[in-house]
Amino acid sequence: MNKKLMAGMFLSMATLANAQDDASEFAKSITPEDLKKHLVIIASDSLEGRDTGSPGQKKAAEYVSKFYNEYGTTPIAPASDGSKSYLQKYNLYKRAWGDVYVKVNGRKYEFNKDFYLNGLLSIPEEVNTPVVTAGYGIEESAYNDYANLDVKDKAVIIFDGEPESGNGKFLLSGTGEKSKWSGPVSWQPKVKLAIAKGAKYVFIVTDKTGEDLDKEIRQRAVMSRRFSAPTLKPVEESLTNMAAFVISPDMAASILKTSAAALLKNKAAISKSGKPAAKNLAGNVSMKAERVSETIETENVAAFMEGSDKKDEVLVISAHLDHIGISPNGEINNGADDDGSGTVSLLELAEAFSKAKAAGKGPRRSILFLNVTGEEKGLFGSEYYSENPLLPLKNTIADLNIDMIGRVDEAHKNDPKYVYLIGSDKLSSTLHAISEEANKKYVNYKLDYTFNDPKDPNRFYYRSDHYNFAKMGVPVIFYFTGVHEDYHKPGDDVEKIMFDKQAEIVKLVFYTAWELANRDERIVVDSNKE
């Protein structure tokens, strides 16, 4: 064999071995003790669950920024005064319910406690209006609740559903088949008809009472949050007042100055006679239903470590900083695993790479440690970054995203040495191979690709921040250990985190990042899988 060739091979092998030894040496700084040291702060009650834009989330941003600064990273986000900051600020916008209530005879009924709303309307100031009953609020050729009834500029109270004629049959169809006036969306044609008749507001009396009604109100309160969901752009609402107050028989009786029993007797009379109510009850009500605009000021945290000879190319390592905050009952959701585990992992990774750089072994490519916010609201922080990148996406070689790696799920309760990998082969076969090799050489965990299957119903590939990079053509890996019984609950606390397990996964991310940042060639984008 050629002596020069042999010498070159030995030199190459020695260089590779030294590089591996370097990676192993600096990975030692990633410890369970350090992860816990940071997490007891990030997931403490004092941060109140880190809800997006909340004081607690901002405290978390300050905390990680402090350590990024200590680790020698550079702030690169533009600040308002022209300087550079670790904080990439952005706003979320939403429309929400403000003051909503109904007043009857001095009593104030509470929204989402005593009644709920279907649809949207705006009553910015308290109004007082006369109320009349309109049976079931139906107009058909054979049955008309509005015949000889003046509802102009009034509120109408109508019963839910449609009249029955007995023996399980309905009055309108003459069979057991319901018409459009019954069912989950039957309130819509009823409201449309009432408004067309000149009514100002509509109250629908539900058949539910007691615990059944309380349960329905709670469910509707959760469903109504879609009308308050934040967006990255200011919200424009179309308020046509096509809405209904859904109330109990007791509340309706209070408005009409009668009893629930008398009201239901009136209802029964319709079914018995097959005709609209002979007696139309009346009353008076005051109400307010305020829609308000809200701006949520939040920020991603971006810490930059400049590379050496390939510094124009950048590797992003991401995790989300926010969680879901405080529950309506006052319980704090600390989010130790979701995604406190990812947040503190980034700090450990930044420290390991900073030690390497201080020892003259810094990454050839640049690295951006990116803690995004708004993930729990809809992946907004990573979406904002992907649309307003601090470093060109065309130069971004990959995103390694960490979200929930501190616990085990039911499928692995007896085998904690695993991690789910999602997306590693979707855009780059090279990235997938590097990840596999890093695990084989250094960590030897089970790499579970269950959730990488496009047929998996959980669709986790689309549910964390890596996806906003992937959809821009940036190769990704999502590191995840699965959902557990404390997911989005107050029980997601520090004492349940398996720090020994987490540290090994963080090391896997480090070894993968080390190869990505230091290899001669940029990884290829050679596929586009679902």
From TrEMBL:
Keywords from the named record? Signal
Pfam families to which the protein is assigned, alphabetical: Peptidase_M28 (PF04389)
Domain of life per record? Bacteria
The keyword Signal is annotated on this UniProt entry: yes
Q: List, in alphabetical order, the GO biological process terms annotated in this UniProt record.
A: proteolysis
Work out whether the entry's keyword set contains Signal: yes
Chain ranges of the Peptidase M28 domain: 300-511
Q: Which InterPro entries match?
A: EF_Hand_1_Ca_BS, M28_fam, PA_dom_sf, Peptidase_M28
Which N-terminal stretch is annotated as signal sequence?
A: 1-19
Fetch the SUPFAM superfamilies from UniProt: PA domain, Zn-dependent exopeptidases
Q: Name one GO molecular function term.
A: metalloexopeptidase activity
Protein name per the record: M28 family peptidase
